[in-house]
UniProtKB/TrEMBL annotation:
Its EC number is 2.1.1.182. This is Ribosomal RNA small subunit methyltransferase A. Transmembrane segments: none annotated. Gene3D superfamilies: Ribosomal RNA adenine dimethylase-like, domain 2, Vaccinia Virus protein VP39. It comes from Bifidobacterium biavatii DSM 23969. The keyword ATP-binding does not apply. NCBIfam families: ksgA (TIGR00755). It is an enzyme of class 2 (transferase). Belongs to the class I-like SAM-binding methyltransferase superfamily. rRNA adenine N(6)-methyltransferase family. RsmA subfamily. It comes from the Bacteria. GO terms for cellular component: cytosol. Residues 51-230 form the Ribosomal RNA adenine methylase transferase N-terminal domain. It is found in: Cytoplasm.
Amino acid sequence: MSEEQEPTATQDQQDRQGRLLGAADIRRIAADAGISPTKKFGQNFVIDPGTVRRIVREADVTADTHVMEVGPGLGSLTLAILETGAAMTAIEIDPPVAERLPRTIAEFMPDAVDRFRVVNRDALTVTPNNVPDFNDDAAFTLVANLPYNVATPIILTLLERFANLDSFLVMVQKEVADRLAAEPGNKIYGTPSVKLAWYGKARRVGNIGRNVFWPAPNVDSALVRFDRHTPDEQAELAGGADREATFRLIDEAFGQRRKTLHAALKKTVPAEAFGRAGIDPTRRGETLTIADFARLAAACTAGSVAEPTAEPATSGADHD
């Protein structure tokens, strides 16, 4: 008796389940819609299905994931997200691109139409009020090929406005990725590194070649994965410090990064606050962790921090 063969999907089922975009598809869609990639919006469209599937895999997107995508372009990554069964909202600043995207989803992945929505808006203006898809307490993830010229502001703005933005996987310029994931003491450690660490942990998870884009960019790209602190972790890190006050200290310290903390923060931080926070004022801002900055911000409010033993002076530190 022969073994029963597994049923195969019909061509109609396969068509409705959809497929991803290739280079020829991208160019055809762009030509049909009269769309040309613009430097104004930092548009470099991904033309390789393997790359977008890799991004979705690194982001751990499943059918249960609620996804925000910023800068979907012509839909390469969008379709890879929808392929998992996830529900998503895409934020697109360019009106012709936003208008064309639903047609692309309907053409290439008809079964996903009901799980997709596009909002024609600048990502820097997005709030829980004007994009109500994400205004409840349910966690969501950001998956995006971000415009390189505004990647960091977009990330920090969304994290500030959406407490339920639980994780992200973004493709950014390699140098930006390095800065986002940098640790204290590294020469590229700076304001973005420290501020992002307030919200959670970032790490680089891979590089992306230039040949997967149309048009090919003049810079290399990399993937950054971020996971937000749990409420307990956030409370422990902050130690009662206010985020805005902490970020002001970060801006001032890195605005004069070659100066000691005492010199860079002399107009903001009382001398006794360094002692209360247990931080040597002859250190530079680039050596402090986000927890150090938070402790110093809290110490600026008299009596808000118990007085630990001050650190000894760092050998070889510059004095201003």
